[in-house]
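Reply to dn_fold:

You asked what the input looked like. This is it:
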Amino acid sequence: MTDSIAHGLTRALTFLSHNNPRYQQLDRVQSMTDAEISARGTTRAAMVRRVFSDRFYL
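and this is what came back:
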């Protein structure tokens, strides 16, 4: 029973995180190649900082 509760909680948290707009932005950044990011005149780290700029000081 404990395993099913843990599994259900894990699935719920995964669902919530994957439907979070911030996670979706990070997914888009991760899917970009370094060349695509470079063509935008930025870095992967800078893009991640922008995604989290309102939450964390990075």
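The chain has a mean pLDDT of 87.
Hope that clears it up.
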